[in-house]
Amino acid sequence: MRLLYLAAGFLFLALGIIGALLPVMPTTIFLILAAAAFARSSPRLEKKLLDHPRFGPALVRWRERGAIAPGAKLMASAGMAVGYAGFLAGARPGLPGTVAVGLAMAACGIFVLTRPDS
């Protein structure tokens, strides 16, 4: 099981790195998942991730208080809005698809916005 968590940690870490480079993909959620997987497989890699100068503080805030920085909340909300607009323009869904995706995005947005600040 430890090897499975280790593999998942590296997969999530890779997705987080890709997300840091591409504006359409999230970063932090994958790093949170990587840290959780490394906590179960490699405390050394978990510590390395939590001590990272750029991403470590956000991961520690999330782990300790479930907190999201106000700037990150703004970026996440803007990203969801742009993603929803792109979905509407690109997929041209019918009413059920529009409503379903809109409700899912709204639920995610509410979750992000109701987390404590840093």
TrEMBL record:
GO CC field: plasma membrane
Entry's transmembrane regions: 6-39, 71-89, 95-114
Keyword terms, alphabetized: Membrane, Transmembrane, Transmembrane helix
Xref: PANTHER family: INNER MEMBRANE PROTEIN YBAN
Name of this protein: DUF454 domain-containing protein
Natural source organism: Oharaeibacter diazotrophicus
